[in-house]
Amino acid sequence: MLIYSYLVKPSPNSQAPKLREAIKSLKLIQYCEIDLKYYDYIKENDGIKYLCKKDKERAPLLQIINKNIVRLSTEELDFDIRSLPIQVENECIYEYNNRNPGNFGGTDDRSLGFCTTLNTRINVLLRENNFNSIFNFNGEKCTVDVFKMLEDFLCQNDKKFFYMNLSDLPFSFDIREVVANSFGKKMLSFARQGKFKTHPIVMVIDEAHQFLNKTVSSDYESFKLEAFDLIAKEGRKYGLFLCITTQRPRDIPSGTLSQFGTFIVHRLINQKDKEIIHDVLPSSNKDIIYYLPELGQGEIILSSTDIKETILLKVTEPKISPDSNTPEFKRYDEFEEENQEHLQVEDIEHIF
């Protein structure tokens, strides 16, 4: 629900309740389509199915909802989002029929008017290529389902690594943060189901400061993306462990860092970074922050709850060296060395 609240930005008083009801109705179609069809609650328009409660009997639908209340309360969003605009419209009804209190009422034009802008934003979202390519709003069969791939990976004991690269995702609309948080929530959901009890999983997040301690905002409220913070705090008891790498420790919540038992620290100069490391290390190891600015290339300090003293280590150079050197400024080839000192102002202006 949070992801759609952020993407379509409903107003809290008039639009958000209708959005929640619409999502619940569409999820109900996924779970109980046969029962709903029996009572003639489901309508279809151009292949788009939606739940129509207008002037229909209340009791059968409420009974179906009560039987599935647990599934409807989860964060799973397994429904056809293409049905969302018309479902929002169908949620804009009166709760009771004045002539027959046992039925739902007719259309509430006032609520429908309030939800017009919400439906406009939903339709814009459905046409947005960046989001559609990631979330597959159009239901294209050729699209790869990452969560299905993840489930298959977890079921195959011969597979050791599952790698997901987000570098090609655009920064607009916080897409990277939203996608990463969705992945984290899925992993936490698997963990809470006990899927990692016998086969623990280590989840490694590179450039973790881009994904932890993040908040996305709409015009009305803010949404904290806290999946990885929750994994750090409670994942261990479910067999889900977290390893993060970052160049900006100051951007990681101290409450999250304090959940880690082992730290591998490279050279740090920024005072705030050093203070963060100082605060989360065991009291016996706090003196290492004085050595951090002096570390050379490839040197690290290892601190862990499993070792009594901190250890200074030199990392073996990799067989394939990364291309991480800073580019050097070169002299312009078109000028001979003997003429460099005779450059005139107009020559410099010509260069630039």
Automatic annotation (TrEMBL):
InterPro entries: HerA-like, P-loop_NTPase. Gene3D superfamilies: P-loop containing nucleotide triphosphate hydrolases (3.40.50.300). It comes from the Bacteria. PANTHER family: HELICASE MJ1565-RELATED. This is Zona occludens toxin N-terminal domain-containing protein.
